[in-house]
Amino acid sequence: MPSTDVKSEESQAAQPAPRMSWWSKLPLAILVVLALFFVGSRLDLFPGFDDLFGSENHDRTGPTLLQSIQDLDRYEAASGNFQVVVDLEKDAKYLPDAIRGSRTLYVGAGTVGAYVDFGKITDDKVQVNEDRTTATLHLPHAQLGKPALDADRSYAVSKQRGLLDRLGDLFSDNPGDERAVNQLAAKHIGEAAKDSELTSRAEKNTTSMLQGLLHSLGFTQVSVVYA
After folding, report:
1. Cβ pair 86, 108 in contact under 8 A
2. Residue 62: what pLDDT?
3. Which residues in the chain show pLDDT less than 50?
4. In a 3-state reduction of DSSP, which class is residue 135?
5. pLDDT value at residue 197
């Protein structure tokens, strides 16, 4: 009996250790390959790696429909370029900013046009002498158009959002919505245009245009009055 125990122990010791099956090694191999590709892409060891897994844009936009046409009886006489840095912060009551709240730093760039409305000019607003050498025009003051933001020159510098805001973006159809900062940028640009010399420049340019036009028609004296 003792000899039998010795043989069984020797046979167990002689048995090889169990080997890992090929399917159990597969996840480890995939991790190694991914790690190599990641390191290679960071160190530029594999040229063209970014192109291999790069993203592509496919424009499937439908045809653009013309909704309406409007006749403009006004002369666009001047235009101003503006830029504003919007710092918009939204806080929640009784919650820290890390939980609920956002702060966006946004650079808004846009233009505002100034025009003179010729549609309001009636016959009694234009006075011409019998010899058709002198003309006096009474025009309304220049007005400012709506601010138009330039998407190519407007961008978000930084965005800070709380945990709940980030979770909300995961279930939102329009994450990172920038309508609020766009509207605020347009508002500030419009206010800056009112404080600028756009309207006076538009009236000056309109006067020069009308004088040059009427001088070419034989008028020697042209006066433009803004009421």
Report:
1. yes
2. 84
3. 1, 6-7, 22, 171, 174-175
4. strand
5. 94
Query: Which amino acid is it at 191?
Result: E
Mean predicted lDDT score pLDDT of the chain: 78
Amino acid at 71: D
Q: What is the 3-state secondary structure (H, E, C) of 174-207?
A: CCCCCHHHHHHHHHHHHHHHHCCCHHHHHHHHHH
* 109 Cβ neighbours under 8 A, 6+ residues apart: 81, 82, 83, 149, 150, 153, 154
Query: CA–CA separation, 227 vs 224, rounded Å?
Result: 10
Q: Exposed e or buried b for every residue in 123-147, given b needs 16+ CB within 10 A? A: eeeeeeeeeeeebebebbebebbeb
Other Cβ atoms closer than 10 A to 58: 5
| Each residue's pLDDT tens digit, 73-105 | 889 999 999 999 998 877 667 666 666 667 788
Kindly report the three-state secondary structure assignment for every residue of 36-80: HHHHHHHCCCCCCHHHHCCCCCCCCCCCCCCCCCCCCCEEEEEEE
Q: Can you tell me which residue has the tokens 């538009």? A: 202
Residue type, position 163, single letter: L
